[in-house]
Specification:
This protein has 467 residues and is α/β, with parallel strands linked by helices. It contains 16 helices and 19 strands. A hairpin with a 2-residue loop joins strand 3 and strand 4.
């Protein structure tokens, strides 16, 4: 089936090939161009638009790679069937990202998860929210109104090794980072409070501490996580009252703290009355050890979210307080932001209660694991820390490279990664390493090409070491 569709590039900015591609995407999304429709030949469309055939060919090529179009030798270019709109075994999502505009650029700066159907599930949930009781759109949030949402969170977390959990211990937050900040607001009371973190740690701990005018002190690590003797020394020297840690999936190294080490850390913490803030936002698969919350529920504050398992866009997280401190955590949230907006809370309840959602989370893990394996196949000859269910890899650089120089060289090659320096304290020392995040918004083929570019750099260090 042909078409008399006449595209219009007026009012758009950017390179012409991008404008052509965006116009076709929009026409497909609006069903102006339906499945099976034959697009004009390259030269004909170029003549209509008064641009070069090469520009049109490039736009067609981009959309074919995305799975939006399908080229058939001798027949022409057609709008692909939805079931075939894949990107090398990964669903095409018509995402308006830098990668879609510049095929050479791949951001591996922060994890980006694949869409295996959660977008459609969220849209369906939004339709239900739109038809909800009108009073939901007219009243402030209340604790009682959110009870069904908190219960949905308890059900969602029921298969996690968290120990006994009731809805009264759950506080809804705007993502994991807001959860961390809310817990710290509840705990930090001294005029010059001190909190402890791993020597290399999630930068969000430091940012939250800065907002609260707290001092951050690093604790030495080994291959199993925090060194108990170093923790003891840090507490004695600083009088710190809280430890922020990520024992299941340490960010950025991907290390795991086994149960025996956790017990040693808890012994030190309990001796000094230290509270533990356990960040579990990066784990996508099953836990390998009971959480700190399960091992020491009276002194652990647990923060998690759905950002890495389903979607970061909702900005929904969960802060779990010790039972006797639950009211304190709720009060902090209520005084800070009154709680989640009611439509967002209701959307979260519907989404988390949908029996399909856990299947979607499992499918996300499976697809992201495919990317991790591609990375390992390309970079496995180097010192690499990885796990199928962790959306990033930690790479210790070989002789001849420094992390800052390597990240600059990688960016020049079209691959954006993070240096270990970004995870070190201001006065701390960073190892010669980089973190490589998984980007499920690009095809496996393009992700592999990015990995091969990194390997080429690793195989060919500069003659002179630069920083």
């Amino acid at each position: 089936m042909g078409t008399i569709w006449a595209p219009d590039l007026e009012g758009q900015s950017g390179p012409k090939y991008q404008r052509v591609a965006n116009t076709i995407r929009a026409a497909i999304a609006q069903e102006i161009l339906q499945t099976g429709t034959k697009l004009p030949p390259v030269r004909e469309l170029a003549y209509q638009l008064q641009i070069t055939p090469g520009t049109v060919a490039r736009a067609y090529s981009i959309l074919t790679d995305e799975g939006m179009l399908q080229a058939e030798v001798g027949r022409g270019t057609f709008v692909a069937e939805k079931k075939s709109q894949v990107m090398d075994d990964v669903w095409s999502r018509q995402l308006h990202l830098l990668e879609a505009q510049d095929p050479h650029h791949v951001s591996l700066f922060s994890p980006r998860i694949v869409d295996v159907g959660q977008v459609d599930a969220l849209r369906q949930a939004m339709e239900k929210v739109a038809k909800a009781d009108p009073l939901m759109y007219l009243n402030y949030p209340t604790r009682d109104a959110y009870l069904p949402v908190r219960q949905a969170v308890v059900d969602w977390l029921s298969d996690q090794p968290l120990g006994p959990l009731s809805e009264a211990e759950v506080v809804l937050t705007h993502g994991g980072q807001n959860g961390i900040l809310t817990v710290l607001q509840t705990l930090l009371r001294d005029q010059q409070p001190v909190l402890l973190v791993e020597d290399l740690s999630y930068a969000g701990f430091r940012r939250a501490a800065e907002l609260l005018r707290a001092k951050v002190v690093g604790v030495a690590m080994d291959e199993h996580g925090i060194v108990p003797a170093s923790l003891e020394l840090a507490i004695r020297k600083t009088g710190a009252t809280i430890l922020c840690t990520s024992p299941e999936v340490h960010n950025p190294t991907g290390l795991f703290t086994p149960q025996a080490r956790r017990q040693e850390i808890l012994t030190v913490a309990r001796r000094h009355g230290l509270q533990i803030l356990e960040d579990d936002c990066y784990r996508m698969g099953d836990a390998r050890s009971p959480s700190y919350r399960a091992l020491a529920p009276d002194m652990t504050w647990h923060v998690c979210s759905i950002s890495k398992s389903l979607t970061p866009a909702l900005r929904v997280g969960f802060a779990l307080a010790p039972k006797e401190r639950a009211q304190d955590l709720r009060r902090t949230a209520e005084y800070s932001f009154f709680g989640l907006a009611q439509p967002l809370a209701e959307l979260s309840r519907i989404f988390l209660s949908d029996p399909r959602t856990k299947v979607l989370a499992r499918d996300v893990r499976h697809e992201m694991a495919n990317y991790v394996r591609v990375a390992v196949n390309a970079l496995g000859g180097f010192e690499l820390v990885w796990n199928d269910h962790v959306p990033f890899l930690w790479l210790r650089l070989p002789s001849g490279w420094r992390s800052a120089a390597f990240t600059r060289a990688a960016e020049a090659a079209g691959v954006q990664i993070r240096s270990a320096d970004e995870f070190a304290l201001r006065d701390g020392r960073a190892p010669n390493a980089v973190r490589i995040a998984v980007n499920g918004h690009v095809s496996l083929k393009r992700f592999e090409e990015a990995m091969l570019r990194l390997r080429a750099l690793l195989d060919n260090p500069p003659e002179q070491i630069s920083v």
